[in-house]
Amino acid sequence: MNVESQAKIRRNPTRAVKIGRVIIGAGNPVAVQSMTATHTTNVAATLEQIQQLLAAGADIIRVAVDSRKDAEALAEISQQCEANLSVDLQENYRLAEIIAPHVSKLRYNPGHLYHHEREKPWQEKVKYLADLAGEHDCAMRVGVNCGSVDPAKKEKYEPTDSISPMLESALDHCEFLDSVGFTRYCVSLKDSDPQHVIEVNRRFAEQRPEIPLHLGVTEAGMPPDGIIKTRIAFEQLIGRGIGDTIRVSLTLPNPRKYEEIEAGRQILADIAAGRVRTVVDYGLQELNIISCPSCSRVENEAFIDLAQQVKEMTAYAKDYAITIAVMGCRVNGPGETDDADLGLWCGPTHVNLKRGPESLGAYPYDEILPQLKQELDALIAHKESSA
Hints:
Oligomer: single chain
Number of domains: 2
Number of helices: 13
Largest sheet: 8 strands, parallel, barrel
Strand content: 15-25%
CATH architecture of the largest domain: Alpha-Beta Barrel
């Protein structure tokens, strides 16, 4: 694709959504964002990372809030920086009461709404969030992830169909938000497979072309592989006019978190200049290691080193179509390793090993690699005997 043809790409006619001092959609420049990886309660460290991300060119910075202490810390953080802050709400959606006055955007995951006040319908919870957002001048993001899909949607489709439940969940939440008069929102539909990201976002944009989309490949992994996977999805979607804000999710040590912003800016610059790659099919015969971006939910920073060690140790299996997932926390780890051939989700002192959805036990960090190799060798032997 040359520069001239790239310049002629028409972006989807999405509506404008204001997020602090940034406006996404309606033809505005694609906004680049990242997420802090420090513990939110460590106000000084979180502020330092926010400043680092701003210096790298971040338009929006997301911070996770999992507890009242996190929420109170973020309220303090917001008073000491000028960033356009987005809060990442997980199970306890009611923490939005504390933080909505201090941020520019509320992000919630439809699949996680079920974990708190289970007796209440999701519509009541979303109405509560929409009312808070309207009252405090916040935008919202409906953040749908492959590993934490609304269970009621997942049951309706075949286990092999991960796209349809994500899509239906997003469309239902959009319809409900519209029905209560709240339209200042964007949507994200993320998967660790770039081809799934392309497909689900393409289908959503066909049905709701007016809604701004936040693009990302979740658990993309470490550089350079994680950047390549993300680039594949972004090139194909932005090349079709789809996408209004992006995040490159990489497994990085805290001091290097700014590289997510640099990678996002570089990908956008390359697309604008026509410097695009041929789309690769990740279903080919090759090893695929996915790992989540380091964030404040990581309970042991040894996870980051472990992800690198897994990559190095498994290099001998590079020609086998095997997916290994390395997840850094107990919030998303259990669900988001289910679809991998082998999965590791990391707790404070132990790493949980899985074969698909089956748990194989928990091991200390310094004992997990031999266990993983044993399972990987067995999986390779099975594939070779079945060939």
